[in-house]
Structures are given as structure tokens and as C-alpha cells.
Design goal:
With 190 residues, the chain is an alpha+beta fold. Helix content is 38%, strand content 23%. The chain has one domain (47-184).
């Protein structure tokens, strides 16, 4: 067999293998796509219930608009059949990728809780932004949040995780996006 025919034969075999692998990957993606979405939805629901445990439910706001690209979804917190605040799903970019989070804002515009539902930040550094003590710094804040490196000076300061400034900035940006959205929200509060 000539060299040219050998190369064509090998190229054909590689092409066939590539097609089979691509088909299998597409099939597996089709099967798992809905399951992954369901798991993420369950994480979001669980995070909202942790943030607002007394809520009777969460009503997704489907017709919201936001110029802020971090705001992904918005849910009204329902308390005794009325508006009780918002849970805003934000997705700021961190060091390792997107940080998906839920930020609860009460009807007075103050943070009632922050939960991270998924992240790919550096283990032992950026992942420290998902620790309860660090996230608790946001509770009760409103207005403009200031991220500081060393010590809290003002009531609106949040101390960054040492060695994880980019991740800290991202989470803070997500919370700020939720606060800004809630301040401009014209839905159930009216």
C-alpha cells in the first residue's frame, strides 16, 4: 500500500472514531442536561429556603429587566400572601469562573442572606468566600458595599478573604448587583 493511501485510510479511521465519540458525547449530554438543570434548580430552592425560612413560597419574576449582566433570575419572597422581599440569583465572574449565588433582600432593601449555589474557585482560597462566617458579613447591609482588605472601618465594609481578592470582589459584586436591582424593583413592593 502506498504512503498516500495509508494516510487516507488512517484519516478515515480517525474521522469515524471522532464521529462516534461526538455522537456518544451528544447523547450523554442530552440525557444528563435535564438532570443537571433539576439539581441546580433544587440548589436554588434550598438556598432561598435557607435565606427566608419563614417564606410561604418564592414566585419567579419572569418579566424583569436589568442592565446588570450579573442578575440572572429574580424571585419574590411571599410572606402571608404578600410581598416580603426578593431573592436575586446573580452570576458574577470570579477567579475560577462564574459564581452562582442567591442574595435575599428584605422589603426594606437590606440583605437577609447570601448563599453560593456553585463555584469553581481555587480550593482553600477562593472557596473561603463560601464559608458562612464570611458570607454573614453581608447580612443587614444596604446601599453601596465597600470591599476592604484589612479591617472593617465603616458599617458598609466587608473584609476580603486574604489571598482571594478576586473571588471576594466577585461575591461582593453579586451582592451589590442584587441590592441595586432590589432598590430599583417596581414589582410586588408597590
Amino acid at each position: 500500500m502506498s504512503m498516500g493511501k495509508s494516510i487516507l485510510r488512517l484519516a478515515g479511521i480517525l474521522f469515524a472514531i471522532t464521529c462516534v465519540v461526538a455522537g456518544v458525547l451528544g447523547y450523554v449530554n442530552n440525557i444528563t442536561q435535564d438532570k443537571i438543570a433539576a439539581i441546580q434548580s433544587e440548589k436554588i430552592q434550598a438556598a432561598m429556603k435557607e435565606i427566608a425560612p419563614d417564606a410561604e413560597g418564592f414566585l419567579e419574576v419572569t418579566d424583569f429587566t436589568s442592565a446588570d449582566k450579573n442578575v440572572v433570575k429574580v424571585y419574590e419572597i411571599r410572606m402571608d400572601g404578600a410581598f416580603g422581599g426578593l431573592c436575586v440569583q446573580t452570576a458574577p465572574s470570579g477567579f475560577g469562573g462564574t459564581i452562582n449565588m442567591i442574595v435575599g433582600i428584605d422589603k426594606d432593601g437590606k440583605v437577609i442572606g447570601v448563599r453560593i449555589t456553585s463555584m469553581t474557585e481555587t480550593a482553600g482560597l477562593g472557596t473561603k468566600t463560601n464559608e458562612g462566617d464570611w458570607l454573614a458579613q453581608f447580612t443587614g447591609l444596604s446601599g453601596t458595599i465597600n470591599l476592604v482588605k484589612n479591617a472593617k472601618i465603616a458599617d458598609t465594609d466587608v473584609v476580603a478573604v486574604s489571598g482571594a481578592t478576586i473571588s471576594s470582589k466577585a461575591v461582593t459584586a453579586g451582592v451589590q448587583s442584587a441590592l441595586d436591582f432590589a432598590a430599583a424593583y417596581q414589582g410586588g413592593a408597590q
